[in-house]
Amino acid sequence: MKCSRRALLTLPLGALAARAAAAPRRFIIDGHQHWGESPNYVETLVNTYQPRNAVACVNAYMRDWARLKSAAKRYPETIVPYGRIFIDSPESLAEIDRFAAEGARGIKMHKPTRNWDSAEYFPVYERIDRHKLLALFHTGIASHIDEPEYSGMARMRPEYLDTISRAFPNLYIQGAHLGNPWYEAAAEAARWSPRLYFDVTGSTLIKKASNLSAMREYLWWDGPGLHSSPQAVYAFEKIVFGTDEDPDHLDIVVGRYEAMLDACKVPEESRRKIYGETLGRILGVKPRM
User: Fold this and answer.
1) How distant, in Å, are the alpha carbons of 58, 147, 218 from that of 144?
2) Which of 69, 134, 239, 270 is the most buried (most CB within 10 A)?
């Protein structure tokens, strides 16, 4: 039954969770989860993710790193720690070194004052690459709330990740939000860059709820071709799962992903890669059932 846009946007969250529950049981890695300030954040995450056979890649600034590191030590099968830096900070390189030495598997970056592919940031990317960490970049629009240092979405266009991926071909890169609203640029950058992936977090799967099959227009290719990298894979396999929401929203976000993947007729083999196998391979986390 076809729903109106209003109906889809106001669909009860329980319906999305039910859609997630009806999906096949898969190994899930949430590649985009932020450290929460609530006192029961870790308890909520663990109680939500463990029954779902899910792992959360949680990122935190240095001020919260000790708590995240402790939580990851207590729940190593559920929490993968990432560091988070202010890329313009003179402390960024030293923080990356410390994060890496203390078990971080990735580095999250947001709100640059220059374009992501500015040569002035290359020492940061070189350091992330040297430590074999995943580089997680915000791309596209961002909240203006309580962000005085926010320099604007134009600094975080997804095509800048193409420049970075060419300069650092061994660096695994995850762009957040599929570059919202620059989806086509994000997809084309991923098509040519073997180690560049994107998550589809944020508002995209809400605002496109009435026409989710449109995602196939951006993620259009089926593998290597005349105008693709020889290493190109099926377009939807350049997507990785993430929530970028409170941990108790896991099933809601899975429901949104399932709706998109159903609309685009993505096969189960590729869904397993999207939900966990791709990030598991990159991060060295073995899938479990």
Assistant:
1) 22, 6, 27
2) 239
The CATH number for 29-283, chosen from 1.10.357.20, 3.40.190.10, 3.20.20.140, 3.20.20.30, is 3.20.20.140
Q: What is the pTM of this model?
A: 0.93
| Token digits of residue 190 | 């991923």
Q: Contact, 45 vs 67, CB < 8 A?
A: no
